[in-house]
Amino acid sequence: MPKVITERSFYKYLKCPSWIAHEVKEEQLVEDSLRVKLQDDGLIRERQLALLANRPIVEVVTEDQDEAMIKTVDLMAEGVQTIYRPVLAHHHWIARPDILERVEGKSTLGDYYYVACDIKRSRRLKDEYCFQGSFYALLLAEVQGTTPIQGYVMHPDGVVEGYLLETYTTKFHLTMDAIERILNGEEEPHFLTSDCKQSPWFHVCKHGSAACDDLSRLNRVWRSEVKAIDESGIHTVTDFAKTTKEYLAAHVSGIPTDRLAFLQEQAKALIDDRIITLGAVDFDPGADALIIDVESDPLRNDFHYLIGVLEVHGVVQSFHSFLAKKPDEEAAMWQEFCAYLASKPAMPIYHYGYFEVDVIKTLAERHGVFHDMTPAMIMPRMVDVLTKLRDRVIFPLSFYSLKDVAKYLGFHWRTSEASGMDSISWYEDWLQHGKQEDLERIVQYNEDDVRATWHIVEWARSQGKK
After folding, report:
1. Are 334 and 349 in contact, with CB atoms under 8 Å apart?
2. How far apart are CA 464 and CA 466, in angstroms?
3. pLDDT of 364-377, one tens digit each?
4. pLDDT tens column, 310-327
5. H-helix segments, 169-281
6. CB–CB of 359/292 below 8 Å?
7. What are the residues facing 110 on neighbouring strands?
8. Three-state DSSP class for 456?
């Protein structure tokens, strides 16, 4: 693959430096545009254009990179107010911010210069956004002879947030230098995190970390903790698991005793490939339960298109799907779901992770309350399976996602490699082409998610009976 730096290089580096190294060594992969938008916290084109509706934009429409760069420079020379989807390039640096905006000032172009702005769905400023903005500023300096002082991000409500680029100068250049070194063939120490899952080479990273028995394999371990353990002379998970408590207490500094003991139990679970149970998981012993899972499309400003529910009465189970076939049906879907919950007032509601809680709060705020189903009435019934597991069970796994845990416990998805990102892709395909099979795939995937969650609950309950 050509050794180039783009704005996405900063995202990739912050998620997994090995991502860039693999791109240099391996054959170039064709990146799916939808997946790229999801990873970059972007919005789909129609949402972007809606946010820019009151601006006099001129779009750079060509996909040929050289032509797009020439067209961008021409538009800047003309003094166009807002340039949509421009291309900036200098040597092996290539960037495509969402917009360039003309502002008053001095440059080689005249009594004005340009600043860059990206449109992001997140409402908080992230380092990767600011590094990308710093990168745009470098390229703009080459084109117009003036370096912008500020970078900008437009949030999904249309509000533009500015930030001083000098605040990020040191961290940006350290990151830029690290990326350049990787492009030139230098290896950087790898640290396995859940962010690595964004990389198409995640399984290679995971295998490599397992092969060298790296301490970062421990679930949710901090870099500072790995550093403290490593500096004590313990360099692998196996060594950590076999080290005496006396040695750890005497040589590992900066980690509380109970935390160190818990990390060592994780190490033992990994090397022995066994589950360590610290106590019974406190799940309601009742025979009735609801298990929910939500499918959302962040490209459409966190539009929620499906709430799946597995209704359990002892051995009798039934699946219910509350589906918005179009974005304007979200409110109706929410009302239907509220009516359903109101008809099951005493049943606990199981979910995996915090996401479903956030969605219920968001939908109630966005569309109002139906059938008296306020978040205050729903929340006491909700049971986060992941939180309860973490307190009582140590799995021989680096990650505790629903798929990681359920698959380890023997559950199988009908579409084995499907993910939430696939669900979004299927939904976007449905909106574009109207094929019923896309909706059916989404519902099936969602049903497997709730059944996987219940599979974990039933496993945990069975452990408490032993």
Report:
1. no
2. 6
3. 999 999 998 999 99
4. 999 999 999 999 999 999
5. 169-183, 202-211, 223-231, 237-242, 245-251, 257-272
6. no
7. 107
8. helix
